[in-house]
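USER: My hope is that you can spare some time for a protein that puzzles me. I am handing you a single protein, as its sequence and its fold in token form. Walk me, if you will, through where the backbone shape changes along the chain. The protein I mean follows directly.
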Amino acid sequence: MNNKRPECGVVKAVAEKYFAQIISVEPVRKGTSTYVYRVKTSSGTYYMRFLPEEASFATEVLVHSALCAIGVKVPQVIEFEHKNEETGLSVMLVDEIPGICIEDSSSQINFKDTLREAGRQLAKIHSVPVDGFG
């Protein structure tokens, strides 16, 4: 199992396969299940995720696509590799969902509206048929 977080320089090299102009690459340390990096480019901000274990993002890519198709607000998958040559890890590149994290916000957020929208999104997720999946 490879539990070593890729260095930003390595992540930048991986990102350069997909983007012409990289402005910055920085680790996002809030998540715990994957190594996440914010990649700022001339065309926008993206997130590059690496699985810390020998596994693949294939299932997650399929789920993201299915959820996007029914209008759930999840990041769109830009690219995906089962096993990246530079890191030896599965990598998934997604776009950014506009907005702010609730924990980074001030009291300007209307929590009632936020919770209602979360409920709508959850209802869409629960509408996905799961027959045949264990």
Observations:
- The domain at 8-99 is CATH 3.30.200.20 (Phosphorylase Kinase; domain 1).
- Residues 111-126 form the longest helix (16 residues).
- The mean pLDDT is 88.
- The chain has three helices and five strands.
